[in-house]
Amino acid sequence: MSIVVDWPMVGRAEEMQVIDDAFTGKAGYAGVIVAGPAGVGKTRLIRETTVAFSERDWVVHSIAATPSARLIPLGAFSDWVNSVDAQPLNIVGSVIAAITASPDNAPVLVAVDDAHLLDDLSAFLLHQLVHRRLAVVIATIRTGLPTPATVAALWKESHLRRIDLEPLSHPQCKALLDTVLGERVSIRLTERMWDLTRGNVLFLRELVRQELDADRLTNGDGEWRWADAWTASPTLIDLVDLAIGSAPPSALEVLDLVTLADPLDMNFLDTIADRDAIEEAERRGLITVERGSGAGVVRVANPMYGEARRANAGSVREARLRGRIAAAMKSNPSASARTDPVQLGLLWLESDLPRDPEVFFRGATAASLRLNLDLTRRLAEAATAAGAGIEAQILHAQSLTRLGRADDAERVLDSLATSDQATAVWAATIMRAAILLFSRGMPDQSWAFLDQAMQTAPEVLAPSLQAFRVAQLAVGGRPVEAAALAESLDRTMLSPLPSTILSTGLALALGDLGRQKAATEIVEEGNQLAGSSPDAAYQAVGLNLVHAGSLVLAGSIHDALTIGGRLEEQWADIPRVPRTVANAVSGIALLAHGELRPACERLEVAVREAESRKDGSGLAYLLRVHYTEALARAGEYSEALESQHRMQTGRHNSYVCNEPARLHAMGWVAAAGDRITEAIAHAEMAAECARAHGQPAREVTCIQSLLQFGENQHRSRLDELAELVEGPRAGLIVRWARALAANDGNGLLEVSIDIEKMGDRVAGADAAAHAALAYERQNLRGARLTASERATRIITECGAATPATRAATTPLPLSRREREIATLVRDGLSNKQIAEALTMSVRTVEGHIYRACNKVGITTRAELACLMAGDPAH
Length: 874
Hints:
Blueprint: H1 13-23, E1 31-36, H2 42-54, E2 59-64, H3 88-100, E3 108-113, H4 120-131, E4 136-142, H5 149-156, E5 161-164, H6 170-181, E6 184-185, H7 187-197, H8 201-213, E7 217-220, E8 223-226, H9 234-244, H10 249-260, E9 264-265, H11 266-272, H12 275-283, E10 287-290, E11 297-300, H13 303-311, H14 315-331, H15 341-349, H16 357-369, H17 373-385, H18 390-402, H19 406-414, H20 422-439, H21 443-456, H22 462-475, H23 479-488, H24 496-513, H25 516-530, H26 539-554, H27 557-571, H28 577-593, H29 596-613, H30 619-633, H31 637-649, H32 659-672, H33 676-692, H34 696-708, H35 715-724, H36 728-741, H37 745-758, H38 761-777, H39 781-798, H40 803-809, H41 816-826, H42 831-838, H43 842-856, H44 861-868
Parallel strand pairs: 1-4, 1-5, 2-3, 3-4, 6-8
Antiparallel strand pairs: 7-8, 9-11, 10-11
């Protein structure tokens, strides 16, 4: 698949206006000179200008200067040269006369592309056209290359207005891609393409073309996505080579050095490259120097330059250059404080230098602190192979475990089996237990393995092993036991990793128990510890996912939104699980807040990334539960059903703690299909499951959904839960239940306002809908209208669909059961199918249909179906 249409010109409206003003004399110039690097759209701008002014009946002459024509006097204007034997000035005069000849005195436009390539006589001719105002001129020049002095004088002496054309901005790049591809382009795709091309339209166009041809750029579900792996095509490399121009070899070597270590501290570059070559590379726009503290930081001006250079470089030369950079980094004492250990480790790993276990291990620990699993694994593996100690082996095994490569991790753990060091014994034990629990989904075997280890391990390891037992208990839906065990342990006896494992398990348990304040405190402690320990750093990922969930349960939704935004900023560029979890946390918070479209978008991305890894960790299942609920609340019934099926088939055995959430999501899917009896049944099961496992905070959310579905049989239980569960949610739900039982429209409206302030806007809409129905029953028409309008406003802003708001906005005089059966009639179910779905007799169904028809003044089943579908003809 290729793009064959001409790409539109995007983001150049301001420049076109400047050109128009210059051409029509409003700005006092004789024309415009457009400057910029190769590929930013100078030629396209000049072409659009000539087309526009041709349509205004101007006489337009287009000239393209070339390196070969530069060798010939007046080579660019050869089409107008009639004689080569005359004096040069006479030839110039005759060419000017020919170019400026105009029928009916129409204005003349001379457009010169790449004017920096003009020979001296052509440059003089162009100068005369402008200086004598014989024609309006538009010309382009490439920045970073020498320009004839006579051409440069045209803007320096203010004859021509100079426009410095910048590459497209990120929003302009997205707008162009959206227009060209004709469908929604994913945020990640736009970011990657802009990062690679830096808004260079020429590079962007060729990149899109090659990726379409290679089937790496694909359209699925109305959104364009780009595969992670790609290589530059020969055509793209040639384009980039042309853009780089005829730079001297010394400047190109500077570009090569920076390409291999981008960004590179100027102190290091100064020790391995000639200063004149560095300055030439900067002047030509091959590199940029960011001035700040110290000598500055050097970067490749456009990532495509590096791609082109690397495509033409040999592996031996690259290894040699990397070795030069790495050696400079390690040996330069004046800049050693700015040495990035990860960068140094990777350069050393791919260089021709002898293996250095210390360099590799320092890089691995730094990569671990940055949550980059892939780099941690590579460098820890290299450190181990180079002879590093037990700590490198443990870090290698940890990274493999977290990457979901359970078999590879266990092979590394086998090499630790002979070690008698307590750290190695503990690490191997915990990783094997974690593999069984998460990667293999075998909770009973994980429990038995840890039991056996605790019986045989030295006493000094007991607290650390019990820290993992806390996590097993919390994940297994036993929060009371998890919290009791955690609180019995002396955390000062634990090293960072078992301590953060304990924090994660305890935070999960405390969140389920409704002890939000204690959960937040333990999360803060765990994050501080993770931020300072390479071993424990990765625990921050799960810890923050757990924290967001507990905040939502308590009703601290604005705090959850804050965490989601922070993680998106911090982890957006960290590959694999951190980026996935950042999207997920943001999506979970947005779901709770009722921003359903962005919630669905973020959760869809997170689920897709998690499922693509097939690591068995259960993360994909956990996120699928949230995504299913988000789709259902958004009214995407068919999509929610499909997601529910995938949720059920992908169910992870170890996450017993998540059973209430799974059942709760199924309740919302049923509600999206107006199957209220089924929705209530699932929410009832979810609440009972939470109660059976001692998860009062989860039970509160399930009972809240029952209220939203119109079921209010748990008032006494809510009073008990409000005593157990901290945070604003439980108390508001108690008030909601009481007002609903009392048919108190005013009370329900107050609850709607307060629960919206809490952040749960969908629930706020449902409470307003309940108020409208209460007012309707009391024949308070004005109050009913006010409450109904509030419910409609909020639910529309959320992009949600709920049974309560549907009932309030279409106030038919039907009971809940009659409305449910009428909805199933609308969906095309027969009376027998309805009876089976609702577990009642066919005769009872027929009776409900008969009474529903009587109440709304119709006589047939078909009319009832049309009425429920909103058909205005009935």
